[in-house]
Amino acid sequence: MYAFLILLHILICAALIITVLLQSSKGEGLAGAFGGSGITGAVFGGRGAATFLSKATTILALAFFISSIALTFITPLTSTKVTGGGKSAVTQEAQKERSQGSVPATSIPVTTPAQTQTQPEQEKKVELPPPPPPGEKK
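and the corresponding structure tokens:
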């Protein structure tokens, strides 16, 4: 069921992308890339393309929202079966450590690094060779 909803969601997404791109705008949309508005005009009629594509976009957007909400409610049910009890893996691991009697992290003493006195280093002067005169090649 979950895999079917994922596949349906992907198909709805692809169809929604295509219908949005096929809608004509100032530059004729994606329909203009495939030969101009003559194709959509011949298939859907003069104004039929705009009304059909706008209705298709509305229906696909509604289907997208419904499938997104359905996947949201179904996903916790499938993950509960995997991890058991609806708890995250981190929570389960923490409870397992607590039940085994391990030392909690708050009781570990905190130490600071020892303060060492450093003597300032003497400045070292490095002499660079003089630059070659202009016009001389190496």
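(Above: one complete record from the training split.) The chain has a mean pLDDT of 74.
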